[in-house]
Design a protein that fits this description.
alpha+beta, 15 helices, 3-stranded antiparallel β-sheet, single chain, two-stranded antiparallel sheet, about 425 residues
Length: about 425
């Protein structure tokens, strides 16, 4: 009888443990979390947001001895011991109070370069070619950030002024809840993603809850991004945010239409959009129909004809004959060329300043000086909508020697 009682007790214990285990089918974790963060955000009528964070204390906490939380000064000291300057540590302490599960990792740019990559040096390299940093021509308040209104890169971008580059490169301007995700480590394994999270980022775009439309497939864009990202070991939100940035909310670019060849032939026959006077046939240009380039990889040039032709040549070389293949191929290049080359954050993909990377200052994914800011905001809003802000995010934040005492000022009012 004693053995039977012991056996029943063991079975009951195992059952309780199983019920608290992670549900791998749904990706949810039902284990009581003694430090759970619940994010409640309310949209006001005027479009602003109220956010509150509450600590949900479980009964399990009363039975477990826990170390008392560090004081602000103690936590600040741990950050400074890691290498963060005080001007960073003060801001990060504020974030830590609100999101104690967030992990902050300094990337000591100057130290890693043997003292060469000081603040003044990286700024000088970034502004060396003023076409490396641009602002979109139709944005409200854009002239505050542009050198002038002389267009570059397809005629829809203006060159960013040096003050704009300094502002966007100074991490201290963005160590807050809404902008912090420009420093999120995109290949971290501490967060689990689902298609629901991706849909929250895609809301308001042509990809939201939509099937991709590939022949013989009912896969949604969000499902594609999750599957591709899981296979590559990266965040699906970097795919979603990047495609939202590259294709806009309407997705009307010929590069993702499947009929870009027709567009090229139209430009060529009309001699519009900087198409050349000769050199192509109708059959040659229309042969690009059926190819897709969602990431706009290699889509550069003078005028839309050159831009679209270059993008289609990349798609043909990659064999991107479906939307899924274009997303998979583009994401694979994003990982191999950038994330795996010490550009594992949105910030580093815009400003390639980590000395361990093989392409400092020129191997940068984006030309738009505000791109990391834009994508970080989209990512933040996606996490907020599905109450994921309390997750164990890891942030890699650059630190430079010789930074000014105060954060570099914003030359305008748009990015505040």
């Amino acid at each position: 009888m004693k053995k039977l009682t012991m056996l029943i007790a063991a079975l009951l214990c195992a059952s309780m443990l199983f019920s608290c285990a992670k549900d791998t089918a749904t990706g949810t974790d039902t284990t009581p979390d003694t430090n759970e963060i619940t994010n409640e955000v309310t949209d006001n009528a005027d479009g602003t947001e109220d956010g509150t964070v509450t600590d949900a204390v479980t009964d399990a906490e009363t039975d477990v001895e826990t170390e008392p939380p560090m004081s602000d000064e103690e936590y600040k000291k741990t950050l400074m011991d890691k290498g963060f300057p005080e001007s960073y540590a003060v801001l990060l302490c504020t974030l830590h109070k609100r999101f104690p599960s967030w992990q902050f990792n300094p990337i000591m740019i100057t130290d890693l370069s043997g003292g060469k990559y000081t603040w003044d040096y990286v700024i000088s390299k970034e502004i060396e070619d003023d076409e490396n940093n641009t602002v979109y021509h139709t944005l409200e308040g854009v002239l505050d950030y542009a050198i002038d209104t002389k267009p570059v890169e397809s005629g829809i971008w203006f060159r960013a002024k040096p003050e704009s580059v300094r502002f966007f490169m100074d991490p201290r301007n963005f160590l807050d809840e809404k902008n912090m995700f420009m420093f999120e480590r995109l290949n971290s394994d501490t967060v689990t993603y689902s298609a629901t999270v991706v849909e929250s980022l895609l809301e308001g775009t042509f990809m939201f809850r939509k099937n991709m439309g590939d022949e013989g497939s009912n896969m949604k864009y969000s499902e594609c991004f999750v599957e591709v990202a899981k296979n590559l070991g990266i965040s699906p939100l970097v795919i979603a945010a990047r495609l939202r940035q590259e294709q806009g909310v309407n997705g009307t670019s010929p590069l993702i239409s499947g009929t870009c060849g027709d567009t090229l032939w139209q430009y060529y026959s009309e001699k519009s959009n900087n198409a050349p006077a000769s050199g192509y046939t109708e059959a040659q240009l229309k042969s690009y129909n059926g190819y897709y380039n969602f990431f706009n990889i290699q889509a550069t040039g003078n005028g839309y004809f050159e831009v679209f032709l270059a993008g289609m040549n990349e798609a043909r070389q990659g064999g991107w004959t479906s939307k899924y293949k274009a997303v998979e191929g583009g994401a694979t290049k994003l990982k191999s060329r950038y994330i795996d080359d010490y550009q594992q954050t949105l910030y580093f993909q815009k400003f390639n300043v980590d000395p361990r990377s093989g392409r400092n200052f020129w191997g940068q994914y984006m030309q738009a000086v505000h791109a990391a800011y834009d994508e970080a905001r989209s990512t933040y809003n996606a996490y907020r909508r599905v109450n994921m802000l309390g997750s164990e995010f890891v942030f890699d934040i650059p630190v430079y020697a010789g930074m000014p005492a105060e954060p570099c000022p914003n030359p305008g009012t748009r990015y505040s």
